[in-house]
Amino acid sequence: MQPIEMSAVDLVAALRQGDITAVQCTTAFLDRIEATNGTINAFLAVDRDGALTRAADIDARRKAGKPLGALAGLPVALKDVLCTTDMPTTCASKMLQGFRPPYDADVVARLRNADAVFVGKTNMDEFAMGGSNENSAFGPVRNPWDLSRAPGGSSGGSAACVAGDMAPVAIGSDTGGSIRQPAGLCGITGLKPTYGRVSRRGLVAFASSLDQIGPMARSAADCALIMETIAGHDPGDSTSLAVDVPRYTDLLDKPLAGVRIGRVPEHYAEGLDPEVAKGVDEAFAVLKAAGATVHDVKLPHAKYGIPTYYLIAPCEASSNLARYDGAHYGHRAEPGKGHRAEPSQQADGFESPLVEMYCRSRAEGFGPEVKRRIMLGTYALSAGYYDAYYAKALRVRRLIRQDYLDAFQSVDLIGGPVSATPAFKLGEKTDDPLAMYLVDLYTVGTNLAGVGGISFPCGFTKSGLPIGFQLQAPPLAEPLLLQAADRFQRLTDWHRRRPKTTGEVKA
Amino acid sequence: MTTPPQPLTAKDVAKVALLARLALSESDLERMTGELSKIVGFVSMLGELETSDVAPLAHPLDTQNVFRDDVPAASLSTAEALQSAPRHDGECFLVPAVLGDSGAA
Predict the structure, then answer these.
(1) Would an 8 Å CB–CB cutoff place A102 in contact with chain B?
(2) Measured between CB atoms, does B64 come within 8 Å of chain A?
């Protein structure tokens, strides 16, 4: 088997046993990236020299019998929302083009200490805002299963690079579904951990009470392996939980007998694609055959998830993105030539030359969706509207979280679709921001409640597009999420299927 | 939110744009007014729910008041803090005039 076809678990074992060297392994993935990235556009930066230097160093240390980290020699791709000192960090925005952070994100430092090899930074929706990767300032990503379709988003590059065999593992971030939805649309496995399980230090902030980092890989077993390295308390993120990290890989191989899985009848409402519904039903059947029981549960406020999310996330974003001021780092507009560039604001006027610099730098640096969300959040937080919108959304958020806590009194997991449809065409939803927001229907509740969720493939449409299945779990029940997904993957082979398109792509 | 929201006007949106520190062109302003009106109309469905006895939930964790030990720790050097600044003089970030009418920035 070629290295690019191997799972992360198998690669780590093969590297440890000396069956392949880190340089061979890294070279195989770098060559694959070189051959296919021109078509897929999954990577915004590829660090060939850095990766090979690091791999050679690991091989030398292994040869010398020195101690090595748990992931020694494993290639890993990083979503370009994670700060890295040795590669640019752009968030797929012109605002941060060329930006070099002065420190590594906590997950990046942990992966480095585990001797992972970073191959590059992956494409994404600008500042993680979007569900199709079409909001990248550096071009959309193509879905390896059908190059005319979107990979989903915002971690579209991370999902596509794993689906396209360009990396065995990618790290993503999930604010409203940004790991699970692209994983579903690209036929891979993605875990959004419980809020606080993984440190957010060095994750460029979008919506701080919702953002969470997680692994994206070919299987639940691979995700479990990565979680052992990236999870854990970090004094640098006061919202990271001081709770011991389980040995996730040791907890996988347990039967599902007695595990109660909830099914939400409202998930099957109008709008759910019939082929997706069929795939989801079949996934429930597999889990039942494995010993789990399935029970209908209610999430009465689920239909309010999208409006609640699209108030809270933009409000937090408008505050978080206030830091891009053209002064400390990031894009700065060139000085004006004695006249205002934007006639519409002459009536109100900028308050000072400094404010004009802020307004023009931000107008030039941010793309349309980021501006839309900053505007929506600023509006919802402004005097006279705060109670009606932001505070209202926070109250509904409590109702939504309570729905989950109530449901988890009677079931251990909640199953269902990740997305209502398989991957949609590039350009299909770009003219209608609201239609794009609705793609997050099944995923935002997890973030609002702060619980965990995993997405993995449960079938394919007749036209060959992956269908995703989602499981959600109570806080810190990642072992059960991974165990159930792993059991499913021992009984099915959907996660082993590879897209043909990338195989046909020539350099 | 008990009454249906009024449609946003271009003037409302221009005011928000200044608060958000975004320079919008006339065409941006027009498009944004339409889009925001539609999105605000949609999210206003939360008004259907009676929530007067529900406390706001800003954060999913119960964690409160996390303190670190009050001891000095390493932080970025001046050079590191300035390394990505568009303009600086080696000690300070340089910006246009903070006071005064908007003219040449």
Answers:
(1) yes
(2) no
Superfamily for the B1-49 domain: Glu-tRNAGln amidotransferase C subunit, N-terminal domain (1.10.20.60)
Distance (Å) from the C-alpha of residue B23 to the closest C-alpha of chain A?
A: 5
**Structure tokens that stand for A35 in this block:** 């051959």
A351 and A239, same structural domain? no
The pLDDT assigned to B101 comes to 64
Annotate A186-243 with DSSP letters as a single string: HT-EEEEPPTTSB--TTBPPS-TTT-EEEEEESSHHHHHHHHHHHBS--TT-TTS---
Residue-range definition of the domain harbouring residue A312: 304-336+344-387
Give the torsion through C-alpha atoms of A285, A288, A293, A295, to 10 deg. 0
Interface of A with B in 30-89 (CB under 8 A): none
pLDDT tens for residues B5-57? 678 999 999 999 999 999 999 999 999 999 999 999 999 999 999 999 999 99
Same domain, A248 and A310: no
Residue A118's CATH number: 3.90.1300.10
pLDDT in tens, A281-330: 999 999 999 999 999 999 999 999 999 999 999 999 999 999 999 999 99
Query: Minimal Cα–Cα distance from A327 to chain B, Å?
Result: 6
Q: What is the mean pLDDT of residues A367-381?
A: 97
Under DSSP, the state recorded for A475 is: T
Residue A154 annotated to the active site: yes
What value of ipTM does the predicted structure carry? 0.93
Q: Please give the structure tokens belonging to residue A226.
A: 């990565």
Q: What is the pTM of this model?
A: 0.95
